[in-house]
Structures are given as C-alpha cells and as structure tokens.
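Example (one chain per record):
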Amino acid sequence: MQANLNTCSPATESTLQLAVEMGIDLLVVQEPRLIEAEGDGDGAVRSVNHSSFSQLFPPQLPTTTRPRTMLYISRRLDAQINCITEDTPDPDILRVKITIRGFTFSLWNVYNERDLQGSNKLTIERALFNLRARGPRMVLGDFNLHHHWWDPLCERESTLAAPFLDWIQDQRLHLLNEPGLGTYFRSDMDRDSTLDLTFASPDLLPLIQRWEVLSNVGSDHHPILFTMDLPRPSIPDCPIEKQRYNTSKADWDAFTESFTEAPSMQSLFHDLQHFPQPTPALSKSLLTGQELELEQMLDDLGSKLTEAITEAAAKSIPRIKPGLRSKPWWNDDLKQLRQDMNRKQRQFAKESKRCSPEDCLPWKTEYLNARNTYFTEIKSAKRDHWNTFLEKEDPRSIFKAMAYTQSTTSQRMPSIQSAHSLEDTFDGKCSALRSALFPKPPETSLPDWDTYSPREHAWEWPPLSKIELREACSSKVKSKTPGPDNITQDIIIAAYRANDELFFRIFSLFFNYGYHPRCWKQATGVIIKKKGKPDYSAPKAYRVIFLLNCLGKVLERILAKRLGALAEVTHLLHPTQIGGRSRKSAIDAGLLLLDNVQEQRRLGRQTSTVFLDIKGAFDHVAQNQLLSVMRKLNLPLSLISWTRSFLTERLLRLTFDGQAQDFNPIQSGIPQGSPISPILFLIYIRDLFQISQNSRFPTWTTSPSRLPAPA
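Predicted structure:
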C-alpha cells in the first residue's frame, strides 16, 4: 500500500489500522508524521509506532534534515530489505532492495517537493533525473505533477511533467494507474486529482495482480493498493525462525502423555543402560579429548531429550501465530465512523461530477464533518483507553506504562560500517557486527593435564542431588524467553514432572562426567540499538542480547548455585568479590568502600581510590587461563571438564530486522546470558585480589575498584 499521510497523526493511525485489517506487508508513506526519537541521537526521528510494523527511513541524512519518505514493514514479512546507498542521500527519495523467496527487486519511494534546504528545486529535478534503475523495479509516490496521461481532465500540465515522462520512458517504466482515477482531494477542489502514481518495469508487470485506489483514511490523498504474486524460489524456503510456543494455551495432560510415549523415549532408556560409571579418570579423558566415543554418546543423549520434549510440545502446545494486530484502543465504533466518512466522501465525489460547487456544498459539509468526527473520536479513544489503563494499581501496569512513555521506535538497521566499506546486505551487516562485537579473546597455553590430580577432599563436590535438579526445574526460576530450540522453562517443568527420574539420570551423567552437550551450546544473538549514539552505522552502537537454550541453562544454573554456595564457605573467592554472589549487592560494595575510607580517616590518613571498568569483560576471558586458575585451585576434574566443554565449540546466529543468519562458530570468552558466567568470571579474576595485603578490592559484577592504603 502507498499513501501520502499529510503529516497527520489521526490519518496515520487510520491507515495503520487499515493495513492491519487488510494484511499489508509494506506501507509506502510520503509526508509521514514525525516525532523526535529520544535516546536515538541528535536529530533522530520516528513516525507513529505500531507493534505490527517496523519503520525504515532514508539513510545517512544530516541531523538537521527531516525525511519525508518512509516505509512501514510488517514484522511477519520474511524478506531482506536493505537501503540502496550508492548515491547522495535525499530526504524525499527512499530506495530499497527487497528480496522475498529468492526474488529480488528494487522499490523507489518518491515525494516530489521543493528542497528543505532552500534550493527551490523539486525532487525529480534535483535527484531523481540523475538516478538510473537496473533490474526489476517499482517507482511510486506522490509526484505532484499534472499530465493528461494519468489525469485526462487536468486543465494545465506541470512544467516538469514532460521531462519526467522522458525519464520514465528512458527507464522503460509502465504506468499502473487507471487514467482519470483520482488519488487526491482537498475540500476547496471541485473534483479529485491524480497526483499519486505507480510505475513498474516490464519484468514486474506480470507479477502485479491488481492495482486500485482505496477509500479515504482521512488524508487528502487516497491510499493505493497493489499486490504482487512473486515467483517461487528454485530451492525450498528456509524459515527464519520457528514460531514460539504459546504455553498459556498448552494442554499439559496431553503433553505429559506425548512426552512419555515419544518414540525417542525408548531410545533414551536404551542408551542409559550403556554408560559406564562416571569417574575422575573418565572426566580427565573428556577434558583432554581422549573419549570421543563417550562424547558422542553424551551428545546423542542431549539431542534425544531435546527431541522428545520438542515432539511432545508440537502435539500439545499451539504456536504463537505471527500476525498484524490492531492497537488496543481501536474499536468497532471507530470502524463504523470510518465507513461513514468514506460513504459521505464517495457521495460528495459523485455529486461533484454532476452539480455545481454551490449545489455540492451540503454533501461537502457532511463529508468534512464526518472526517472531523472520525479524527476526534480517534483521539478520544486513545485518551480514554490509556486513562483506564493508568487507573490500574498493579505493579505490572505501572512498569508497562513507564515503558510506554519512552519515545522508542522500531526501525530497520541502517548500513553498517565494516573495516573496508558500508555493508547494506543482511549477510554483510552480520559479518561487520561479528567482527566488531566479538573480538577474538587472548590466547594462552594449554594447562598440563597429564600431571593434574586434585587433592582428595580439597573441595566438597558430591554427585548431583535430586534436590538440586528439582529446584532448577521448578517454577522458582523466572525465565520465559526460549533459546533456538524454542523450549521454555514452563515446558521443561512439565517434562520434568512427567518423568523426573529420567531427567535425574540424564543430568547426573552430564554433571558427574563434566560435559555440556553440543546441541545446548547454540545461542541466538538479538541485536539491540544502544540509545543516544551519534552514528548508527558503527557496529559499536549496538549490543547483543543472548538467548540460550533453556535445557542447557538448567545444568548451568545447578553448577552456578553449587559454586556460589561453595564461595560462601571456602576461599574460592576473595571476601571483597561481591558482584554475582548470593545475598550480596552493590550496597555491600558501597559500604565496604565507605568503611575503608572512614577507617583511614580515623587514623588521620587519606585514601586514594582507582575505579576500573573492564571493557568487554566476559568476551575477553582467556579460556585456557580460566582453566589454569581452576587447576591451581585444585577444583574437581568433573567441574573443570564441564567448564572446558561449556566454553568450546559454541555456535551463534545473529538476528535483527526479522531475519536470522545460520549458526556459525563463535570465538568468545565466557557466554553472555548464562547463569554461570558471572561466577566463572569472578574465579578468573580472583588472583587480582592477592596483589597486596595493604589494598582493598571491593567489586561489583565486573568492575573491581582498588583502594590502596597509604604507605
């Protein structure tokens, strides 16, 4: 759908609702309503937000230039959409390359108006005439030109209409408009005019099934709808990501039955009979990579458990269906008012063709009153809905309301600067982000495991207990976001309750051997824009949220809790290592700092403080050095073996703009988002706290703060 929204907020809301009802994938907009996007840098703007759409504006514009073209892109659209940045950017031309099901074409969104910088030149003469299109393409927008080709009743042709036609013919573009079918009407006009045009290249014409002008949405311009029947790809579609499970509508009884009777369950029970008893010698063999057959058996065990849970979930839990949703304040009364406005507008247009302007005045007045009523009711519906929402006193509503007050936007990622060029394709952006956000961690030599034999009873490290597993598989764990396998904590709880003995036997093998299955070492990295950055073409202007497989996090959570408890009663960590530990907080770090300052003040001394922030702390952990620290501490072989297994051979896929790449190996220190990562990092830096007996190192999370005592 294409539409000039005349910078009108109610017209924008009305058009977005119409797009939801009609299942629109792309909404091509001229003159959008612009709002300052707080936190997105100086001069950043957005249009009216909608949960079903992301926004895309012309890239690389000066901060003082406000764009007058944009796209709303449906979140359900499985497509790669990248801005074309080959020429000088212009706020009134948005050019994108779209790839859907293996078919690629370009779309040009044009708003023909005088330059905002005061050159007094129209868009087509200052920018469009200098561009050349290649391949399948569409050129559309509000051209603000009168010509008999598309408007036979126009009284006078525009000055630039003839040069524009020459450019159209040179580009071998075909007009889709029905000549004489109006797209623009203002209250002081006698009839509709045709200003909004759609052109397509010859190779796209067979794919366009229909082109039509829709009913009025409150703007002076009528929306235009066209559909494209794209060719099927030569290879099967590969879905970007499976749909998540809707656990609120799960049939848990059916899940339990399906899980216990899953075909892979029989294979699981059979495999469990063939595992030898875990011993320190076997853990050491796993640590040094000498038990490849045992590794494969453990990998198969993790895969089959995941498969059994997935099979049961697929049969008993519906998927969340991606789709367009209306805003919560939209109601049937507004829909009726929109229909009434459209009916009166059509009546006025009909009468204006056979009556004089004076005789048409009653129909014109009815139409304008209906439009004003519609716009007023949209504003009232929004206000009443949010007032009712804010009257709720539950904490959930309060925090949600706070989030709504943030002027955020969901915009497509612009071109990303790599080491050599600007990347505008999805794969190119992924490569640039990986290179910048995941630097290779420092390398150190492998510890000598041949001579390693931890002292007996150096640490209390019994086998996995049923209580530990039960707590890790309970509703006490507040985790709703699934990893790549889409298995949530709720599903794990149901599977554990269905067969807790099977879970215990499987997780005991992983825990007691010291092994983390490969299928649980996959992660999805969601790219999030940092607020207030001046240049969003820089990879460092983004951060990554890691979504890990929840089955793997069960094992990670057990080990994290075991190590945390050990740190409280042993010398595993220094007493002033506070961050990431149970029953300790930033308040304790602050009090420790205050206590040291007051103690030195009582002695008549001054205290110097050096605050340190370890940049990219987890990412820069040298894995072999962490293992060396654990060896030096004489930690159990099974724990060291599991840590090595957990850190190596990890896979990551990045996802943004509704797209996800394939899984690729990732070389990084300690995984972000894992329950065990904080305490592994504390173990890694523990030796920093042994440098001087006359210094204090209160720390919070990953930022040690040194307090040297005076000499």
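Caption: Residues 233-241, 702-711 have pLDDT under 50 and may be disordered.
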